[in-house]
Predict the 3D structure of the following.
Amino acid sequence: MDQVRYEAPETLDAAIALLSDDTTASTIFAGGTDVMVQLHSDLIEPEVIVNVKNIPDLIGIEEIGGVYTIGAATPVAELQEHKEFCEAWPGVIEGAELIGSVQVKGRSTIVGNLCNASPAADSVPPSIAAGATVNIVGPNGKRKVAVEDIVTGPRQTSLKKGEIIVSTTFPARPPHSGDAYLRLTPRTEMDIAIVGAAVNLTLDDLGICTTARVSLGAVAPKFLLVEECANALIGTRVDKNALYALGKAASDAADPISDKRGTRDYRVKTIAVMTLRAAERAVKRAREN
Amino acid sequence: MAKAHVTTTVNGDEYEFLCEPQQSLVNVLRDELRLSGTKEGCSTGDCGACSVMMDDRLVCSCLVLAVETEGKHIETIEGMGTAENLHPLQRRFLEINGLQCGICTPGILVAAKALLKKNPNPTETEIRFWLAGNLCRCTGYDKIIRSVQAAAEDLRKDKSNGNHS
């Protein structure tokens, strides 16, 4: 590697100017937990490294009327320490907590987990199920995009040259809402999901499910937001029959690969179980609040 | 490309160094600042041997750019105790044989200290999960866990005796 330049702009405009220069290969550097590895194994060879952690817009957790906006460079450890956010979105935290060790979570971010674009990223399905959106700024101005529209395939995103995700917004929660994320791994810690399932739902005062979003990870080239899964829950009390239909819809939607962590058949079968259990956990939480 | 000039605080002392933009913190700690207590294992954030504290946050120093530590406060194993006055964690690791080859030990000590600051009375499960990012290929972990438990007890006793070292 030769001639790398380091920049740490303090404004979004300065960062965008650096990143949108067509003549220079650049990389955004926030938590660094993926970028450092890619940099030192020559998977990426940027001419300029843009550390975005000095830009105030990208740091911190803000809550207004139940709507949470998380700065894109905020480490997962800070999310874990934010009691109110953890109570509002336990499923999102369940996913974020699986991003590596304590050391890694001291640096890594949920936006980095998203933009690294691994189909097995653990914080992404619960963010999609939550209905979260990312706030993007680029050379052509601002746009808001649903989390499910960012990853387009393994290691590929819909972000354009010069664009930065500034923050992620989680919507306000109606009463009787709950979410959960469960994954299957070869070991309990420090491994990658064989399959992952996130369920977010809201019940009415009678305990009938009124809205649901179900997102699956590691069972397709990109994260899935499965309408058939949501439909299996909506209008029900999330009873055994609904859960069975939910699991079947998850298996039907899955189109996974076989690799060292599991075969295609294994993933298709286990995604049903994980989705069903995530729904059980989400509905339990919804009944409690 | 000129090297970057960085000023940072390590174990309470201010250091100035020159580094390449892509150089990792562990690299600078060991090769430029000659603080070789921090070990480099995997260089990919998996093994935890290079664990240090940065602004009171436990991190892998292989995943930190040296140049981004400008103005930060770093704590390494060198700041933990002296040969004459070992930290309770260091003393218990020696007594209980919480180490064999020793390469993982500085990282584990730094990580365990961070845990006990946050949670003075962790359960075995909590210790195991907290240290999941610190790999040891010698001990089988049991003696590490027991060393941390014993040191936690020492520190709690010290505290109740009004000794806040």
Chain B has two domains: 4-79, 88-160. The longest strand of chain B covers residues 4-10. Chain B has five helices and five strands. Chain B has a mean pLDDT of 95.
